[in-house]
Amino acid sequence: MKIEDCKVLVLQKMRESSDYLKAMLVSCGAKAENIYITDSVEVAKTFILGEHIFNQGTVDFIITGIGYSGEIGSMLLKCIERDTDLREDVVVYFYSGGDAAWVMQKVKEYGADGFLPCDVYLLKEKIINVVKAI
């Protein structure tokens, strides 16, 4: 898949983080109009389910943070995990500044498909590789 064709959902509470991720995605070649940002799990679920139910092209991947069980990213991952149709279609990545062991523990704990590093150069490279693999 080409990055300009991807639909990305960014689920973050902090506006600065959302803006940073959107700018990073656009710098990788994504179209700004294909990047959806929300700070609400309910809005994210509605968006994903609506796209899925009406076959308008599901979200290609979601970027969120899942540092602890009360975070919105963790809550969304639990909802996706319960819905097998969504689990097959949606690729979820989270980004983190933790060390490698912590990151891998969180990936396993919450069922994310992978993680995006905080380092700006590594983040860009990983986003491009994620999209190519879809």
Topology summary:
Blueprint: E1 8-11, H1 15-27, E2 35-38, H2 41-53, E3 61-64, H3 72-82, H4 84-89, E4 91-96, H5 100-110, E5 114-117, H6 120-133
Parallel strand pairs: 1-2, 1-3, 3-4, 4-5
Outline of this structure?
This protein has 6 helices and 5 strands. The chain has helices at residues 15-27, 41-53, 72-82, 84-89, 100-110, 120-133; strands at 8-11, 35-38, 61-64, 91-96, 114-117.
Strand composition percent: 15-25%
Radius of gyration from the alpha-carbon trace, in angstroms: 14 Å
Any idea what the CATH architecture is? 3-Layer(aba) Sandwich
Low-confidence spans: pLDDT under 50, at least 5 residues? none
Task: Give me some keywords for this one.
single chain, 134 residues, alpha/beta, Rossmann fold, five-stranded parallel sheet, 5 strands, 51% helix
Please provide a written account of the structure.
The protein has 134 residues and is of the alpha/beta class. The protein has a single domain, classed as Rossmann fold. It has helices at residues 15-27, 41-53, 72-82, 84-89, 100-110, 120-133; strands at 8-11, 35-38, 61-64, 91-96, 114-117. Strand 1 (8-11), helix 1 (15-27) and strand 2 (35-38) form a beta-alpha-beta unit. It starts with 7 loop residues before the first strand and ends with a helix.
